[in-house]
Give the backbone structure.
Amino acid sequence: LPISKIRHDLAGLEEGELLSGRIVNITRFGCFVDVGAERPGLVHISEISQGHTERVEDEVSVGQAVTARVLSVAAGRLSLSLKMPRADVDLSAFERLGPD
């Protein structure tokens, strides 16, 4: 798969920003995602899914389209996560409702 045109400057990316990309390489410690920056970002195996990931290739595949969240940009390296933050759900309104 060809690397896409540069759409994002690494220095301009912010922690928490969501980016669309494609998985371009899988290793035993994670995968690399092309998000259109100067170089692909690393998703560590611990950041691939909410549960425990034994084997990266059981969760993702090369060429797969993903949405990745920026964890950090340091020393020209982009660290990403495929885990999406869970929104806290306030159920207190439902607790006040009766069985009617």
User: Anything to note?
Assistant: The helical segments are 92-95. The chain is about 5% helix and 35% strand. The chain has a mean pLDDT of 85.
